[in-house]
Amino acid sequence: MAPKVYIVIYSLYHHIYTLAQEVQKGLVASGIDAKIFQVPETLSEEILTKMHAPPKPDVPVITVENLSEADGFLFGIPTRFGTMPAQIKSFLDSTGGLWASGGLAGKFAGTFFSTASQHGGQETTAFTTITYFAHHGMIYVPLGFANPHLFDNSEVIGGSAYGAGTVANGDGSRQVSQKEKEIAQTQGENFGKVVVTYAKGKASA
Ligand SMILES: Cc1cc2nc3c(=O)[nH]c(=O)nc-3n(C[C@H](O)[C@H](O)[C@H](O)COP(=O)(O)O)c2cc1C
Q1: The Flavodoxin-like domain covers which part of the protein (predicted)?
Q2: If the chain, 205 residues long, is cut into consecutive pieces of 10 residues, what is the mean pLDDT of each piece?
């Protein structure tokens, strides 16, 4: 059976969802059974309408129980004030039972991002997420500079050593670029290779 990675996202305007689909392609290329989930919404329909939110991505809502099923997780995070949105924090805060049982210890974790601005805090979002992985005893897998587009300064390109990323503009008008999609695929592929290698080692131990 192929190792499982769950891509867990929150995506109000679908930039993170677009990246997630590219991350999924990379994971599948590495032989992973990869599924996209979204965290539960915490905002009311009234607020979502006022925020001009389109319909939600067509992916299932994750439960805490689902987390036990996977070997690793890639979290897709649209930055809020330089850190994760309340929706993702609220979901992660509900994993206390798994923390108490060590249920996520030894599972792999990584992150990817979307910000309005190039300077909007993709890296601070990564840092402030890592505390959850550390407390759970999860194994954090960064992207590094695994894709050459991360050295390209000729145009706006989201992402960093901490994970793929996109830059959406304040009004959400900028769409995920081809280079950002390729970086996201690389992240999925590399993360997948780590999980597959570990699973093979466990099987032969
Ligand atoms: C309350 C709020 C706070 C935000 N804070 C930031 C921020 O600190 N830096 C930034 O660049 N963008 C910020 N944004 C913009 C979001 O990061 C952007 O809408 C999101 O990345 C788009 O991803 P999505 O299309 O997947 O929802 C903020 C948006 C909202 C609604």
Answers
A1: 5-191
A2: 97 98 98 98 98 97 98 98 98 98 98 98 97 98 98 97 98 97 98 94 85
Domain of residue 160, CATH code: 3.40.50.360
Residue 50's contacts (CB-CB under 8 Å, 6 or more residues apart) are none
Protein residue with its CA nearest to atom 30 in ligand 1: 80
ipTM of the complex: 0.99
Q: Which one, of 137, 154, 146, 136, lies nearest residue 112 by Cα? A: 146
This prediction's pTM = 0.98
CA of 200 to the centre of ligand 1 (A): 39
- Domains: count for the chain: 1
Which residues form the pocket of ligand 1, taking CB atoms under 6 Å from any ligand atom? 11-16, 78-82, 114-117, 120-121, 168, 172
Cα–Cα distance list, 158 to 7, 154, 163, 181 (Å): 19, 12, 9, 10
**What is the sign, positive or negative, of the torsion defined by CA atoms of 95, 98, 102, 104?**
negative
Domain range enclosing 31: 4-204
What is the number of the ligand 1 atom nearest to the C-alpha of 10?
A: 26
The closest alpha carbon to 99, from 133, 62, 141, 142, belongs to 133
